[in-house]
Amino acid sequence: MQSRVVQMVEENKDPLVVPRTNGITRALPQRLLHLLMLFLFLCFTFSVASIYMIKYFGFHSIVPTIKPSLLPCLEEESKNLDSWINPPSNLLHTMSDKELLWRASMVPRVKKYPFKRVPKIAFMFLTKGPLPLAPIWERFFKGHQGFYSIYIHSLPSFEADFPVSSVFYKRQIPSQVTEWGKMSMCDAERRLLANALLDISNEWFVLLSESCIPLYNFNVIYKYISQSKHSFVGAFDDPGPYGRGRYDENMLPEVNVSQWRKGSQWFEMSRKLALFIVEDTIFYPKFAEFCRPACYVDEHYFPTMLTIQASNLLANRSITWVDWSRGGAHPATFGKSDITEEFMKRMLQGQNCTYNNRNTSICYLFARKFAPSALEPLFLLAPKYLGF
């Protein structure tokens, strides 16, 4: 009976239970082994492929590098001296005038440069738009790279189309609208000076208009300016109605009437005087408020301020020739029919002035005002009379 019961129990057992449990026990290590082998094979394959890619294509082909947003600043700090002495590669910055003047006012305290510095002349063009006499200037600058730099302040709406080969290509600075005789004109000149000061190699600064031409070749002008003991800023005491007659007693105490000066808008000045202008916060507010038409601020602000601060550095004359013989509020403008050999001689001869406290017959380096139609005859006569 007992034997039968045991037999029935054994017959009623699930025949799959025991075999299944034993199968898992035996199969599980084998499957894990297969997975482990597959994983090791994939790791080996990936490692070989990675080494091959690094060897032949570089690391960045495998893992892209994500630079942090502050990296440019860190890179800038880690550069050598070149990052401080090289001029800005792009003149179209986003600084406001206040930021620009502050940045331009920074100067090295050690006077001796720790690198070979070639002093340059900054030619600053204050224009409304195009430069119709650009071919004259292109020929003037040719072959003298490294001794000059160019800056153009035009109307903000003007888009220049100079070719890549032009010396004027991408030389426009951020600009604002200017009005004749108003403080916006001096603002434009300060803007030009400030941008030019960002290039530490610029030592002399010449203000020009689109109607100006050079009267000598580059070598003569560079030598004349670089060897001068004075800056060519016109500043004289005019006791008449167009001089002291424009003075306002509200200028006191910063400016008294005996210090009031008048001069030409078109100047050449040293780096030291340019710094006086961009860092000025004393005289600027007075002229902005109390020198308005019929007080023309571009004729009085710089001459007066520089006379007060550095009169011993001024030549008290301009080096830009103009003709006032026709009368009126503006000098004569010359067109195609005016440009003759007699006219060229008249500009260049019969002059007397002082240069480094000695008499000289070379008094003007530039001339204005020339209409676009004057380009062709000027271009033809320049080799004979201007030397380029």
TrEMBL record:
The keyword Membrane applies. The chain crosses the membrane at residues 32-54. It is a single-pass type II membrane protein. It is found in: Membrane. Its main location: membrane. Keywords: Glycoprotein, Glycosyltransferase, Membrane, Transferase, Transmembrane, Transmembrane helix. This is Glycosyltransferase BC10. The gene is LOC107026890.
